[in-house]
Amino acid sequence: MKTDTWKNRDWITTFDYTKEELETILHLAFELKERFNLNEPHDILARKTLFMIFYNGSLRTRNSFEAGMTQLGGHAHFLDTGKIYAPTFGSETKDRHSEDIADTARTLSRMGHGISIRCFGDAVGWRWGMGNQVIREFAKWSDIPVINMEDDWYHPCQAMADIMTIKEKLGELAGKKLVMSWAYAPDTKKPLSVAHSMLPVASKFDMEIVLAHPKGYDLNSEVISKVKNNVTQFGGSFTTMDDMDAACEGADVIYAKSWTATQFWLPIQEKLMEAELKSLAEKNKDWICDSRRMALAKKGAIYLHCLPCNRDFEVTADVIDGPQSAVFDEAENRLHAQKAIMALLMK
Amino acid sequence: MKTDTWKNRDWITTFDYTKEELETILHLAFELKERFNLNEPHDILARKTLFMIFYNGSLRTRNSFEAGMTQLGGHAHFLDTGKIYAPTFGSETKDRHSEDIADTARTLSRMGHGISIRCFGDAVGWRWGMGNQVIREFAKWSDIPVINMEDDWYHPCQAMADIMTIKEKLGELAGKKLVMSWAYAPDTKKPLSVAHSMLPVASKFDMEIVLAHPKGYDLNSEVISKVKNNVTQFGGSFTTMDDMDAACEGADVIYAKSWTATQFWLPIQEKLMEAELKSLAEKNKDWICDSRRMALAKKGAIYLHCLPCNRDFEVTADVIDGPQSAVFDEAENRLHAQKAIMALLMK
Amino acid sequence: MKTDTWKNRDWITTFDYTKEELETILHLAFELKERFNLNEPHDILARKTLFMIFYNGSLRTRNSFEAGMTQLGGHAHFLDTGKIYAPTFGSETKDRHSEDIADTARTLSRMGHGISIRCFGDAVGWRWGMGNQVIREFAKWSDIPVINMEDDWYHPCQAMADIMTIKEKLGELAGKKLVMSWAYAPDTKKPLSVAHSMLPVASKFDMEIVLAHPKGYDLNSEVISKVKNNVTQFGGSFTTMDDMDAACEGADVIYAKSWTATQFWLPIQEKLMEAELKSLAEKNKDWICDSRRMALAKKGAIYLHCLPCNRDFEVTADVIDGPQSAVFDEAENRLHAQKAIMALLMK
Q: β-strands C208-212, C237-241: how paired?
């Protein structure tokens, strides 16, 4: 258990957190889950403030952070960027509508104890990677921890809830087969953040990882190389395939969800190629997690999804609402994992 | 005083709460009012979370629930449906704009201790009764108490504040004459929720109840039959009339406010018949609570209104701002009654 | 230190607060700053509620009030006027969109402990002074303290943070030269609130005050006369000039920011004269606080700005982000000054 490396650190990706640090978070998350269940006080952040800046809508993230801060004795501000001056890169600010991120970050740093941010898609003109850059700009200027509540590239809080759920349901992580699979959804603009965060975490725990997606839905090569390095260092394996059936065979965990095809986005393209996105997705409508595919997995395998989901597209209702689904445990674990992260960083 | 029937129960209508349970709520409400007045701590819901989902605007409801949770030691989230994924029946969800109520309810159930909802009118396409159905769908899926903050049919929190105010001002309820009267307002789309909730509560307390409205503004027949059953069981009387003057004679309480004529709504009609609504209302512009009508009531009679009101349409300024008006006591009692309800259900 | 004059008082301008009262606020602000720095509890407003009503956007004000209430043990409601019924003068209310201020104020008075309001510009149809009138209407009807979070005329919380910052950085206030200077900004509709609040406070502390602005940007004559009276009573001096260079010479503090020219506004004009506003501003583009002008000031002089600022228009980046800038200390002091004000008024 690491005790000395937390103070005022940012949580933007899990990349620069060691395995021991991630284990320290998980350990505390389970401890806080028990105290919550027993309704025992745990005022670790008494009277402290988290500033939650949302460029995008949110149900799970907002409510788990806000309830989490209350449970820790503090309070989280819900900051809709339409109601503050939307924090923007200095060169793009407009009077009475936006303000330089550098100024926002330095101001909030003086008034509270953490800044959490969600930013992707529409909010940054559908420019790929800009959401992550916005968060990094906050981190550059903030003197208090900056926490990523999901950008276009990463969703590290989700990954901690995911791995916590797998551990809770299946026990020992080592040797378990985790399938991260693309799935079809009518909305073709979903971030890659979940896969980009989950795989780098899972690969630190000696798991047998399979990444499955149709051609054209590749993950970022830097992320893939981090996953491969982890497997070399910590054991397990990493395989990619473009056959969902083959991937599901013998799985312990099937995490099937949709993500976009980044080759059709800015800045690679001059403008977002919506028709091409649509057309590629339509060719892969059979990428759905249904009971037939769950039957290919191990008995006792679980289904994960970060939610919100597209029922009957990404996953059939009988699977996500069935006995193998752990999606509401997974949603609940957002609360406990994030409380652990906040407690460690903002204490 | 009932102590054993509260845990995790929903508060959607008062129908399935017994007289003893309603008295238990009232008793606690007065107790909490005293503690508030003395500024004595009463951390009954310390660190607990209420999720307040508002499909519609609100002043009194939102602020009384949010301040109430603070006073009880917890915190209430203000959730504007435009900022979460608006909870919707599964078949009506739209990507990145809405989410299945079943998923929203099951997610929030894991993170906090109560879900309160306001839903009617515009938010459900002006389909009559749909607001109530939305709340019932939440209750179906939620493992934590669901609290009705007003739908198109019911406003049970308001009814508890109303009866509390009558008791506070007039003492013994038995034998008091309560007039619930329709009144004219330019806005012809107001819910029936207040009358539909107030009468079923008042009729449990041996009161002489008069319901007055012009032809075409009938309350729901099921509600009326519940009121009649209550009168049979608990005493008092129930009379309807279409003459506001006659109704006001000898009254102890005049509760005059506007409500819509449901026969012009979906699903009875194919579309909301705004012109017919308007025209029926215009014929009844003389249904106003003014000083002449207050003079028909008993000396010491009080005037009630849930607010916001249409001054000079529903009620003249000299009445609502005069010595017989108890509307701000009534608004304050929202706070205390709701704190009692939350304390009992979410403890 | 005054102890007997605070209970339930409004904070709309600093005009009717004595020098001793302002000193009491400053003293407590520094005390609370130290406790915040040491993370020592100071639950002066435990479980109490502040209702923050925002007609306009806000970053610093909202977050400093909301975090401040948390630190004091209470909670602040963020009330966007689009989500409550926007409080409006009775004659201007619209069904389901707005509500009489008299009703809003009397309702909230029953549920919590303070009402804070920001209101100017767009929210009141660009009618000059109407924001202040809205706040005064609240104060007329509210039984709990009304706190001005900035209107078109005044920003008294900012003034307390400003004077606190000067005291913190420069020590003794008496004899220091304070320059309040207009500066150019592309947005020509900024309130005069900062200058109108800062000068009446500073002039109670025996300072050498210089007000500098181009012709046409005069402050309100009533404010000016209060400043002059203060100088007579408390010492120091007050000079006005239309030469920014001359003003900056030998300054201890340069507070350079933009404000509008009220002679082009309603109610003086029939409609807001945007072209004339623009044209007058464009003639004075050289009113900028740059390093050359900072060099005219004393060694060790500080630069102040309430933020958000227009970099490269009101002030160059090298000044506002340089070693003489105290703008983030100033922003932080909003928190501590406002906590002191709330603690004294709402205790």
A: parallel
Among B78, B99, B109, select the one facing A59 at the smallest CB separation.
Answer: B99
**CB–CB of A211/A180 below 8 Å?**
yes
Tell me the residue type at C84: I
pTM over 0.90: yes
Give start and end residues of each alpha helix (H) in chain B. 19-38, 60-71, 101-109, 130-141, 156-170, 193-202, 221-234, 244-248, 274-282, 291-296, 317-320, 327-346
User: Could you give all domains of chain C from N- to C-terminal order, each with its CATH number?
Assistant: 43-152 (3.40.50.1370), 156-331 (3.40.50.1370)
Enter the tokens of residue C157: 């919380």
Q: Does C99 touch chain B (CB under 8 A)?
A: yes
Beta strands in chain A (DSSP E): 49-54, 75-80, 86-88, 98-100, 114-119, 146-151, 177-182, 208-212, 237-241, 253-257, 302-304
Contact: A112, C186; criterion CB under 8 Å: no
Residue with tokens 């607060």: C17
User: How many residue contacts between A and C have a Cβ separation below 8 Å?
Assistant: 81
The DSSP code sequence of B254-302 is: EEEE----GGGSBTTSSS--HHHHHHHHHTTTT--B-HHHHHHS-TT-E
Q: Do B107 and A328 touch (CB under 8 A)?
A: yes
Nearest to C111 among B63, B186, B310 (CB): B63
Q: What is the DSSP letter of C192?
A: S
Summarize pLDDT for B33-79 with one digit per residue, the tens: 999 999 999 999 999 999 999 999 999 999 999 999 999 999 999 99
Q: Which of C263, C257, C327 is nearest to C287 (CA)?
A: C257
Residue pLDDT, tens place only, A269-286: 999 999 999 999 999 999
Contacts of A331 in chain B (CB under 8 A): 106-107, 110-111
Nearest to A58 by CA among B93, B50, B83, B112: B83
- Residue C57 at interface with chain A, using a CB cutoff of 8 Å: yes
Q: What is the pLDDT of residues C289-326, one digit of tens each?
A: 999 999 999 999 999 999 999 999 999 999 999 999 99
CA dihedral A292, A294, A298, A304 (to 10 degrees): 170
Q: Which residues of A touch B107 (CB under 8 A)?
A: 59-60, 63, 307, 328, 331-332
The helix or strand, by DSSP H or E, that contains position C54, with its residue range, turns out to be: strand C49-54
Provide the b/e sequence for C280-294 (b: ≥16 CB within 10 Å): bbeebeebbbeeebb
Whether residue C107 contacts residue B331, with contact meaning beta carbons closer than 8 Å, is answered with yes
C100 and chain B in contact, CB less than 8 A: yes
As averages over each run of 10 residues, the pLDDT of chain B (347 residues) reads: 93 96 98 97 98 97 98 98 93 87 98 98 91 98 98 97 98 98 96 97 98 97 97 98 98 98 93 96 98 98 97 97 98 98 97
Model ipTM value: 0.97
What is the pLDDT confidence band of residue A91, given thresholds at 50, 70 and 90?
confident
Window B:242-261, CB contacts with C under 8 Å: none
- Cα distance between residue A340 and residue A30, in whole Å: 9
CB pairs under 8 A between A and B: 80
Tokens of C129: 């002074």
- State the pLDDT confidence band at C27, using cuts at 50, 70 and 90: very high
Q: Does the distance separating the beta carbons of A84 and C62 come in below 8 Å?
A: yes
Mind listing the pLDDT tens digit for each residue in A160-187? 999 999 999 999 999 999 999 999 999 9
C112 contact residues in B (CB cutoff 8 A): 63, 67
> Quick count: other Cβ atoms within 10 Å of Cβ A312?
12
Interface contact flag, B77 A67, Cβ < 8 Å: yes
Residue of chain C whose alpha carbon sits nearest to that of B335: C111
Which residues of chain B lie closer than 8 angstroms to A66, CB-CB? Answer: 49, 75, 77
